[in-house]
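Section 5.1 Outputs to date
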Amino acid sequence: MPSALRWNLQRPNHHSPSSIFHFMKSLTFILLTLSVIITACSSAPTPPNPTPDTGTPDTQPLDTATPISDATATVAAPRPNVSPTPDLRLDPAKWQEWPVVPQISGRALEIYQRGLALGNDPRHFSKIGDCQSVPASFFGIYETDRYSFASEYQYLQETVDFYQGSFAREGESVRGGFNTSSVLLPFWANAEVCQPGESPMACENRIHNPSVVIISLEVWFEGRTADVYEKYLRQIIEFNIEQGTLPILATKADNVEGDHSINRAIAQLAYEYDLPLWNYWRAVQPLPNHGLDPTDPTGFHLNVDGWNMRSFSALQVLDAVRRATSNLTANGTALATPTSSTISPSASFTPGPVAGLPFSSMTPASADSAPASLLFGFSTRAGSELTSAGIFQGNLNGQNWLALAESGFAILDHSASSLLAAQGQNLYLIKDSQRTLLTDKLLSDTGQPANFLADGSIVAILKTETGNQLVIFADGAPQIISVEKTPQTLYPSRDPNHLYWGAGDQTFATALSNFASTALPYTSHPAFAADGKMAFLDRDATGQNQLTLVNGTETQTLPLFGNRLVDMEWSPDGSTLAVSVANVSDYSGLILASKLYFVTWPASLDEVLAITDQSVEQITWSPDGKSLLLVTRQIADVQYRIRFSVINVSTQTQVPALGFDWVSESYLLLQPVFWLP
């Protein structure tokens, strides 16, 4: 929230705007051919190759606020030691007069220092942006040898050196088509590196651990108001402040909305939260066509001068932040960080009927009764925390729900008479409402840490003082299986002869007869059938999906649609493999289309379904293998709609009387879904 006091602020020293243009004419800042750069925005026309201007540099820098001195930046933990002064900042209504390079306020220093105490990396910055922020068009040049600074700007090289590794980084919160809404939605996150239910922004912060984030989102959609833009930008700001990551806001060069209301909203938020504002709009005003491409009918894309000014002026802002924060440390006073703990089962929880599922509503496909039952759990995400809402059982029309376990429990697998559930590092066997604690050392940070074997025994990966161990729970004491590699995940299968597990990019089969383990010669995602057949899906040299089937010593390779695997599962008898794949845009990361196939040995491939308006979440076979449950997700406005549909395998058509829509305003992450007899 905005600081109650204003820290050491002085009225900006405004240079003549023409000095910016003189600066641009003389800047010896040499970029590569921008024909490659501009294609980062798919609809942008390709400009001619720019000719770098190597004239004599002007001695005046970009329009800046008076910099903070080193003495001013000195702090005494836990708050910066600066003196409050009257608020002399320009009103947000006069944002066009704000300097290009801001003064760094005491409130900004406070956010940054809190981030250091949380463990943020002072040498890392991130970007939240659209196609104008991809490294090819913004900042990437600073990790090459194809730029130079005039003598009076050599000081910027220190900042380039300090943040090396961040300029050309392909971050998870930058993508063509991103806007203030999409960076908040898990739907847009890169499933290959982001955790379930994690937004692109949260994913980037977790992976890169930045101390500073530059927020520059220009994309405008007709019909969206500045109020909507401001609402989502506020959420982005508050998330990063909570993470101790200092947000740098940025105005945009265009005025596609027609009244500059977006830039006005950005300035208002910078003022309200007392954050640095990079006034890029002001920087491009003296440039030809104000830095915009005159051949672009949308009025959005930049020209060569605009691109040059964008990277350079942003670097000056980053330099101002680095210098203002250079003396800040956490001073050994780390903030309290949450630690994992075991949650005791609630004494007030009683398994039994419930009116509906938490955080959501149901719309059945029909009012007909549906005797078949579904078993699943789901989680919700609040900030960086993912919390299970419990384990539930209901019918195929989304009715007659039973709560089997309370919040904090996640389902892992089921057998004919019981189910496996995890609660942190605790592994429970739940049978007839009775819970048996099997271990309190379950490996909790992996996809599948435990599952049933074909004979009803249980295999699990335990995290011990000596490392991860593979353990089988059967009658009597747990049995440790000696393996050479460190097990990291399990691959469920009802194969009576083997258990399957992964270590790094390797997959292993362990014989249940003698516990001998064999590395399989495939490194892609696997699925294992009850009769011993295997399937592995990877990508070919062109990046397209490729399926390999293995039956004993024989193999078959089949090309499939798309470039991403969603889910695949063998039928109970091992005769048919259901495979869901998707084509994901390399530009936006958005799922463009999905397809569902039925595959039978040796090379029969039937396309069952093609979807363009939804994304597939999971597929689950019925116990008799005659039907398939298809779970898809769709985002409509601020709601998430998860649809459960049933497909008749023999006719390869949807059963209209079965299924339901599950709707929520919260992102609901499904745990494994099981179809009970």
